Task: structure prediction
Amino acid sequence: MNEGNAVNDEDLVQAIQNRAGLRSADEARRLFEGVLQALAYVLPAEQCDAICACVPEDAAWCLRCGPATPDPLIDSDVFVGWAMASVDATGAPDETLGGADPLAALAAAEVQARVRVVLEALWERLEPPSRAGIEGCLPGGIAEMMNPGSSATRREHDEGDR
Amino acid sequence: MQVDEQLDSDISIRIGGDAGQGVESSGAGFCKALARAGLHVFAAQDYRSRIRGGHNFYQIRAATRPVAAQRVPPDLLVALTAETLDVHLEQLPPGAGVIYEESLRLDERIRFRPDAAQIDAKGLRLMPVPLLKTAADHGSRVMANTAALGALAGVTDFPLERIMEVIRENFAAKGSEVVDANLAVAAAAHRVARERHADFPHPMPRGDGRARVLIRGNHAFALGALAAGCRFVSAYPMTPATSIIEYLASIAAEYGVVTKHAEDEIAAVCMAIGAAHVGARALTATSGGGFALMTEALGLAGITETPLVVVSVQRGGPSTGMPTRTEQSDLLFALHASQGEFPRIVIAPGNIEECFEAGARAFNLAERYQCPVIVLSDLLLASSLQTAEPETFGTDRVSIDRGALLAPGAPAGAAAAHRPASGADPAGPSPARNHPWEAGAYPRFAVTDTGISPRPLPGDPAAVFTATSDEHTEDGHITEEIHTRARMMRKRMRKEDTALRDDIRPPNRFGPGQASLTLVCWGSTTGAAREAAARLTAAGTPCAVLQFQDLWPFPADAAAAALDAAGLTIGIEQSYTGQLAKLIRMMTGRALDRQVLAYDGRPFSPEDMLTAVQRCLNGEIQVHVEPGEPPLPLATEVGVNV
Amino acid sequence: MSDITVKDFDSWVKPSWCPGCGDYGIFAALKHSLAELGVAPHEALVVSGIGCGSKLPDYMHVNGLMTIHGRPLAVATGAKLANHALTVLVVDGDGDAYGIGGNHFIHTARRNPDITHIVENNQIYALTKGQYSPTTPQGRVTTTSPEGVIERAVNPVAVAMAMGATFVARGFAGEPKHLAGLIEEGIRHPGYALIDVLQPCVVFNRVNTYAWYGERVYKLEEAGHDPYDRAAAQRVAAEWDDRIPIGVILREDGAPSYERQVPALNAGPLVERSLTDVADIGALLRRFM
Result:
């Protein structure tokens, strides 16, 4: 519904593409939008505004798409779901068992790396005073991805073997 | 039960007519009167008819000793239609009586038959009674079946008052006018019959006056289940199992039974599994086609170690087959139904008392071994009316054993006390995650020496647990870990060994100590086999019967020992392929010497069986019973050559 | 407030769902709603079928029963009839509930046992890796529909309503808080409650993503929908594509649950009765004499 509003900040998109090692700008754009939308579901309006201020204007819609109040039940597992649209985790046809071979285990590492790239890019652009407020509102496991200075402790289930 | 070893006072009666002439209800009513007079009764809507159209008939056998099979030939035929005579004429023995509606003029009908001379030679006693006119004069024409009962009592010199008593009860709901009219009709027909045919030489035997239960196998089974605490039955109607849920539904409000007519057999068995999982004694009842639909869920009960009871009442197959005829062709299916391997118990009652006992025992076995128990019945056993001593059905005959069920709160101690099985499973190291339940989850599937794990119920604060159709850890979580898989398979299958050791019964043996001939059978066929064996023994050939009641786990050692001492063995089964014989051979390596196979849907009579046995003795290895086969003369002394 | 928390439902087994799977949101919502209602792990029975989402009970400290494909409603109905003191929930997928289990779905909807049925509807068979399900849109290419799905998709909420269901809702796995509210209402509803959940399958359904739903869903309670208005509910149930309603679509209060109408259960749960409370079957035997 927002196709006319695609993010056109080529520098930002290019940076994300390079840092995440993505093949196309389009993929980078979808990743960026997905993470912003996920943020919109977990952050209060005030923090969304702060992010808005540091992203291109044409990405603002992503931060306005969330519910009226943040959803406290969104954890890191759900959060990364928004970014998964940028990861094609369907492998080659599985002729042994049928269906397509899912690359879910690989995708887990991949989507976390991608989300981390976007969050780090935002972290760099955010005004330092607003950083703490945003970090405090993020689900466990996501906050740590955003702030490179935070302890690398991730939630137990992210270490699990998927 | 004592089957008569010598033929005593014994009469066989057929009541035939068109569908819609009240043949079934008259027959059942007459049986009730006979039972109250203290006679032993075996009766059923008969399935021998090979005649198209609406003809059906009821066959009643009454005797002064217990009887567990029909007997041909009939001593007395009650013909409400001319067709009845045509159908049964061939089987009427010399001197048999025929009570018939006078206006049918059966005497003239016979006179114009081409075989009139042969029939005449039989010396049948034709006994016309104006049934319709009597009914019309004293009540209405629809009461002709009541008139037939009155006439039947008159001809056989059976006390009219017994008939009157049943009429009063059966018609009570319709009001006193209907009752009185029926009573008048019965009395008038009785009077006419006495006046005209009092000299019929085969009177009704005199009963001992002892009141007995007159019941069908399905009802006996349901009563057994009820006595054992079964309070949940889910089923989908299927002949000939329907009367089980119907009966329990009829007493559900009064006795607090939950009965659920489900949307299909899959739902029926799954509901029973759900109910059993949370602790109810739950039953589902079906026949072969419905059992086929239940097979996947049977495996669910197997791997989740749920005490499920399924009663499958066999009928003629395959597919829709012959819905109202009897067969025993689902034995190997019941043994093997569902994919994969899991412990199960299969038992097959052979008479009415065993139906009651199986109804109760199945639940004890299911809870003791936490596995599906399949009770294989068959149409003849399920639907024929038989008398039994009331005390055999006492609640005091039923003990309730819930096996390793834990009382609420008990799991805490049980979990702490649990140690992995010693000795029984040397090959299996504990899984990597050793005892996760110490962190809260309960080891519902704890590996033990017997294979039986202590069983808490959902709702117990001391034992939260998960169960799954997947292979799982001791605390019920999904795994494919190699050692756990092996240990869990061994743990579950070990329950069959434990059952074999502690609960499975050897085959029942009946007959003389030393037999030169043994009839090997299961299910309802046992009744006719015992009577046939008794007659053979009386005629000079010591003949025993070996009845398999517990079919899985198969009592192989006991079976082998019994067969080795059996003389010539003849398997008698109502199937084409002789499934019990196959099972015996598979489990003991012993082949039965001869086989008698019937698959025409008719119940075996002792006479059929004697004919078939005679063919075996004449050298046939495998006898396929021919419908309507004339009986072979029974040799007084049979030479048995093993 | 009860002292039950989400933590009480933690298991030592961690989910094996794909990263970002909609099942995580449903899982979080379910645990939250049980904690909110103060239902302890031993007081609930979560019955599932076969499918990715049906593994949910494995990941949760709760009485769980993972059954066979399509049959959890039937198993749950038996469990509820035998022990109606348990809070019984069914969690399964669209293939399980609306495909192979379709017969049980329609009959349970009209039967109205007090069971909360959460359907993880991702419009695809994910456990078998990418075949079309009863709710896959017409024309969608999958491994079993290389030329596109020919059949029309099932509209589960409309089917449930047509069968006389007394509580029909739809949630979105991307909004677990909202979904938790629906599950709470479903559990409180004394009858069958269907909660069809829009669940992104991030691997095998590349069309109906979080963003796709995020752009389309709207909340019925914010739109002023009256779930007691059956006609309005029918209209809402027909909406799809551009705007997809989430929230309680239809409810009917006061209809007694199935088990409340079973005379044998008037005195309490069946499993609490003594097995020997029929001390003597003599009275029944006499009817056969």
Residues 6-286 of chain C form a domain with the Rossmann fold fold (CATH 3.40.50.970). The mean pLDDT of chain C is 96. The beta strands of chain C are 44-48, 63-66, 87-93, 115-121, 167-172, 193-198, 217-219, 244-251. Residues 22-37 of chain C form the longest helix (16 residues).
